[in-house]
Please model this.
Amino acid sequence: MNAGVDIREYLKACAETTEAALRFSLPAEWDIPAPLREAMHYSLEAGGKRIRPAFVLSAAKAVRGSESAWEASLPVACAVEFIHTYSLIHDDLPAMDDDDYRRGKLTNHKVFGEAMAILAGDALLTHAFRLIPQAARRNGVPVETALAIVEDLATYAGASGMVGGQAADMLGEQGITTAEQLEYIHLHKTSDLIVFSVKAGARIGGATEKQLELLSKYARNIGLAFQIQDDILDLIGDEGKLGKRINSDVAQQKVTYPYLVGLDESKATVNRLTDEAKAAILEAELAEPERLLQIADYLVQRDH
Model:
């Protein structure tokens, strides 16, 4: 894609490419109960920023410097969106965050009931692991690379990663959250899946171990900054742009960065993390680092 394209247009193109592939990611010929298939597609096609797939696509191209890397990484971009979508369905359940709206639409359980929402999330989670081998079968990604990506996904999305972060978040709601615990929650609940996305794309692009280390640092910092920015927007954001009510964290008595350190310090932390992330990208000496740098700046400046 033309490097001169505006970052918003670029991310829109990433989202459109991902969404086109998502529509065919669940085989139409499979005999799936209609309500389950409908519930899966309802959340999968609900829109959103598709930031995690964009990280997969962008990291692959940043390392290799060719459009072929973008194409090869598309099944993995879909896989991470399956994982992210399942996590949102489960997060919204009454036993978790108990949200009525997601991306401006009724949450899955509000439309299909709690049982079907849980099963839709389970099915999305499972199917993600089927998608990754397609990068090897169809797109020429080495089998060893696909295996490493599967292993990473199980790690970053599981008990020591995203699910562990969600568990810590639930414990935090019971009144035990400290600054250290809040950072743990954000790093695992949000940042880990971004680390996975960047590393997966980088692996497909052929990154060295040193590049993987630096790209992981970039992603870890961006993921943490991304979540702190969400905390900020929950206080001062535009409900129309966010697609959900603001002050939801306050209403649920959640401990957030602004609650612990104040709004100004939270903004300063976002800027510091972003600067450190960009420094890691420059140190990695990638073929085409520009888009990863632009995404970092965009996420700091976003208002939804």
Remarks:
- The mean pLDDT is 90.
- The radius of gyration is 18 Å.
- DSSP finds 16 helices and two strands in the chain.
- The first strand starts at residue 101 and ends at 102.
